[in-house]
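Subject: Sanity check before I submit

Could someone independently write out the structure tokens for this chain? I want to compare against mine line by line before I put it in a report. The sequence has 354 residues.
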Amino acid sequence: MDAHTAQAQEMYDRICLEFFLELDSPVPSWELLQELHGQLKDAELMKEVRERIREQRKVLAQAKPPDIEAGRQCTNPVTCEFYGVCNKPRPEDHIGNLPGLSAQKFQKLKDLGVELIGDIPRNFALTKRQKRAWECVKNGRPWFGKELKDALAGLNYPLYFMDFETLAPALPRFGGMRPYDQMPFQWSVHIQQEPGAVLEHHEFLADNTADPRPEFLRSLLQVIGRKGSIVAYSKGFESGCLKNLAQWFPKHEAQIKAIQERLWDLLAVVRAHVYHPGFMGSFSLKRVLPALVPDMSYEGMEVSEGSEAGLIWEKIIHGQVDAAERKRMREALLVYCKQDTLAMVRLLEVLAGA
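---
Independent answer below. Compare away.
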């Protein structure tokens, strides 16, 4: 059912995207929105939508749910709300927890009767990273590559640990935006002037429905300095946000490009030089952190995912909650973003001591 719903949403989003990409002005007027509405009423499109709705109703009318084996459709394009019903918890050493294992190789291993990583035959074709994970799981020990020290040598103090939170609305909200542009509304930065120095923390969170981008950028430029490495986890995301900011605010383009040039990707270093059985095939910060820093995790936090952060921020700025709840939600957002940058600090400490 989720797949059908997602397909219908994707179809709608595609029309929105194609429509606005053709506009001279990325922010739609009321007249343009009416024109879009007219396109959505197109007979062929509505016929397809009605057919998909009929398919869904047929499935809902069945006494039992369809007998479909769990697979990638359970999480792509969105995670099914009934994921836990069809996908029973798997052991940490399940073959599905090998990093980047293709569906074909997964099926080959199942055909061989292999379900646990430790039972994979030594001569079974695995990538270098998968072989590394296989060895770690069999040995029960983490692996730190010989070139890790060289990778860390590329860091220059002071260090700035930086994380952004964004929202990607389908309909552009402010001047210069296009459909699904990442609109930044929050940042956290931890600063370490030299090895072992006491951390400084700075943060920003937009509080109302006004365009958050100008103050986001202004406040960030005040704390990010002019020298020193800027550590991010998957720097492509932050760099992409900065690129957009440079386009929206061209007078700051030179400063923004200088920040981009200082970005240092902690995720890339972990992928290339570190593996732990607790990663269970994933290099996400949420999985890597508790494996390497056992006293830290995102479990039990009110906000534990970036997608949740955007939804909560929307509730705050649009007055959908009372004052007490607003204060609590705002604090939860600050704690979450701060956790991301502090997590990078702690991870780097572990890597430096490995």
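---
OP: Matches mine. For the report I'm noting this point. The two ends are 47 Å apart (CA to CA).
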